[in-house]
Design a protein that fits this description.
The protein is mainly alpha-helical and about 50 residues long. Helices cover about 20% and strands about 0% of the residues. It has a domain of about 35 residues.
Length: about 50
């Protein structure tokens, strides 16, 4: 676990499907949402419930 890399990513304007494809292409297995308010008016596909 000590050598496990940690990546950061913003959702930009990707669809949720494209975002998941991007994660899979880079073999990202876990996503941790650290936003204090995990909601977006403009991109509701990235609201807490959807992630």
């Amino acid at each position: 676990m000590a050598n496990t890399p940690i990546f950061t990513i913003g959702h930009s304007t990707h669809s949720l499907e494209d975002f998941v494809i991007l994660l899979r292409q880079h073999r990202i297995e876990f996503v941790i949402d650290v936003r204090s308010t995990p909601y977006s008016r403009r991109m509701p596909q990235f609201n807490k419930e959807n992630l």
